[in-house]
Amino acid sequence: MSAILELFSYDFFQKAFLAAVFASISCGIIGAYIVSRRIVFISGGITHASFGGIGLAFFLGFNPLLGAVLFAVLSALGIQFFTKVAEIREDSSIAIWWSLGMALGIIFVFLTPGYTPNLMSYLFGNILTVTTSELWWMFMLNTVIVLFFAVFLRKILYIAFDEEFARTAGLPVALFNYLIMVLIALTVVLNIRVVGIILILSLLTIPQATANLFTNDFKRLLVYSSLFAFVGTIAGLFISYFLNIPSGAAIIFTLVVIFGLLRLVKSFV
Amino acid sequence: MDPLIKIENLSVAYDKVPVLENVNLEIHENDFLGVIGPNGGGKTTLLKAILGLKKPESGKIHFSKEMSGRKKPIGYLPQVRHIDRKFPITVFDVVLSGGIMQNRQNAKSIAKDKAEALLEEMGVIGIRNKAIGELSGGQMQRVFLCRALLSDPKLLILDEPDTFVDNRFEGELYEKLEKLNEELAILLVSHDVGTITSCVKSIACVNKYLHYHPSNVISQEQLANYNCPIQIISHGEIPHTVLKHHHQ
């Protein structure tokens, strides 16, 4: 116990703890929406496409997260455009953007002279190296997401459940869909540092699956998902520290174990 | 009396393939119009055009003064097969979604009281906290009917409310609709001609074109003039109407 308390006296660990809190809230809420709406695959496409932006930023020498945001939003719009305007099947357009982003990222990184030490931490995340400015960005994103969902909860829920009915009721469906798409892109990008591009889908789906074991109420699902995400992230963080294994992988492993155990318990109760 | 809705020369197409052509129709207060026709004949498309979900290629849909405005007083019960049954939403929230754009004061508490009253009336108040996926077909239709009625509509549009339900519920549903019809106009889409002809006041056959029959009985002479490819099969003593082919 004292070893755990001692950890909190380290600056890097305090930052990691805050990052875990912010990641849990933003991924818990946005993930619950993504899962409810069955757009997990789109989110995966956006996430992986953002790698192209990270590569571009390495190549041109600007902030990688900025590049990631740029590519995430572009791919979100690109998927919409391919599907609605160019009439390419949705799953195919997602896969095209997904792999195009990764390919561009690899090309840019390859063209960048010298060694790129941080690349692995973007792919697989490292919550222990989150910087103060990244924490501020995560804090602002969390504020926006919590406010947006608190103010518009009912409208978001009704549009997500039955888009057509929402349109007949006069709700601005397209506007809400675009706003939430932007929030998804930002959530994905700002949490890349925590679990990485390849693993972020887990924070958007596993705590939600766990929460879904206990509730079918949308509002509760948002809250429970954040809580389960928090428990898994913190536990994973400790496991990663004491067993000296990569934090992103440890967090996901913990999330899955929690889900598996609770699922088992539920079938016996 | 102006009609609530007047449709003039309406044509609708999907990807340039015409689904409805040159449709004319009026819906008046207290109408009870049954819309029948084969699958793919354009019944749902007609509803979507009226609801503003599908833009017509040509033609006009006029709404009377009381039907105008951004939030039109139309209650809509969509086909339940399009509903995601795994969506995490409770029955009560589904019903409340029917009143989302009401901007009166205390709108929220009024909507909650009304939603409770409707669930009570439909006999499904006991399942208000259940998830939508736990309901039977009949319960689901009742819940969606509550949602459609929450906004006090002038016109109620139902798209095949008789799918996934048992016969007993179907009977109850039509009784409910007949009672509701004293207050509002109803447009009921069904592929089950036999049942709807017993309660509707007029019939529209939709199969790319629309043929309007001002009563719920279609005479032999009328049948001879049209070509509406609908068939029903019935065994035994059940009173039923067989609509023969329309000749366009």
UniProtKB/TrEMBL annotation, chain A:
Q: How does it sit in the membrane?
A: Multi-pass membrane protein
Gene3D superfamilies under this entry? ABC transporter involved in vitamin B12 uptake, BtuC
Main localisation: membrane
Q: Which UniProt keywords apply?
A: Membrane, Transmembrane, Transmembrane helix, Transport
* Compartments it resides in: Cell membrane; Membrane
What are its GO cellular component terms? Answer: ATP-binding cassette (ABC) transporter complex
**Which residues belong to the signal peptide in this entry?**
none
Kindly list the biological process annotations in GO that this record carries: response to zinc ion; transmembrane transport
Annotated InterPro entries: ABC_BtuC-like, ABC_TroCD
Q: Which residues cross the membrane?
A: 12-34, 39-59, 65-83, 95-115, 135-153, 165-188, 194-214, 221-242, 248-265
SUPFAM superfamilies linked to this entry: ABC transporter involved in vitamin B12 uptake, BtuC
Q: Which PANTHER family match?
A: ABC-TRANSPORTER METAL-BINDING PROTEIN, METAL TRANSPORT SYSTEM MEMBRANE PROTEIN CT_417-RELATED
Family label: Belongs to the ABC-3 integral membrane protein family.
Q: What is this protein called?
A: Zinc ABC transporter permease
Q: Which organism is it from?
A: Draconibacterium orientale
UniProtKB/TrEMBL annotation, chain B:
Q: Which InterPro entries match?
A: AAA+_ATPase, ABC_transporter-like_ATP-bd, ABC_transporter-like_CS, Metal_Ion_Import_ABC, P-loop_NTPase
Q: Which domain of life is it from?
A: Bacteria
An MF annotation (GO) of this entry: ATP binding
Indicate the segments forming the ABC transporter domain, all copies.
5-233
Does the keyword Nucleotide-binding feature in the UniProt annotation?
yes
Q: Which SUPFAM superfamilies match?
A: P-loop containing nucleoside triphosphate hydrolases (SSF52540)
UniProt entry keywords in alphabetical sequence: ATP-binding, Nucleotide-binding, Transport
Name the protein family: Belongs to the ABC transporter superfamily.
Q: What is this protein called?
A: Zinc ABC transporter ATP-binding protein
Q: Which organism is it from?
A: Draconibacterium orientale
